[in-house]
Amino acid sequence: MTIPTVSYKQFGDDIARPVVAPVGTKRWIVLYIMVTAVLLTSLACWNNLSGGALVEIFNNEDPDVPPSHTEYAKMARYLVHKAEWVSMGSLSTVDAIKGFPMVNIISVADSARGEKSTGVLYFFLTMLDYTAQDLHKDNRLTVMLTLDQDKYCTNNGIDPMEPTCARIMISGRADKLENGTAEYDFGTKAMFSRHPAAQKWIKTDGHNFFLCKLNITQIAVLDFYGGPHYVTVEDYMAADPDKQLTVAATDGNERTIPPRFSTTTTVY
Which residues pair with residue 220 across a beta bridge? Predict the structure, then answer.
């Protein structure tokens, strides 16, 4: 009689067994997926009905989200802190266009990169440039800043000229800062942080760059339909763009505010 050979597993050897989820566990997994899908669908519908307000609430944790368009002082501070450059207008001293408005692109900083906003614009000028020559004669100027400097509006489907693409016009006087003062050191550090090339400007023989700041006289904010709003210097300096306010739900009696960015053409 032939005895069949039988192989045995040694003690401790792994025995592969198929993993089968209990029937109850499968039901819970299916139920979880269904509940999650329903919640996500409801969330999307709620956000559409609320005009995007829900998204704004969640985005308040993001420091790069613009303030509400009704917070004019905070919007101005936000744009100033965000700006790397401005369009600077002066009164021309060139003979052919003396007294005409003249504009230039000027690099600015209100703090070092990554540091808190100060609201004060610092910038370097040289007398080799016509802006410095104009301001030496008459130091009145106006700067314009737009939310689209980093393509924020364009990337969100809104033309830079639309009022919903926030812009501010700040008028004041350019004041030269004395080297060796605490404010000079602060402004220089801020400029070097955001504009490393400025360190070469200072060291270049014959250019004689000097540091200035903008002493503000008037602030105009245009960030929605209906014309500009004027912000006092006191309110501007008191605003903190680093703190975002939570969007409150409307009570039904207030005017419904559409989303900040929309691809819908508006006739006005």
Answer: 169, 230
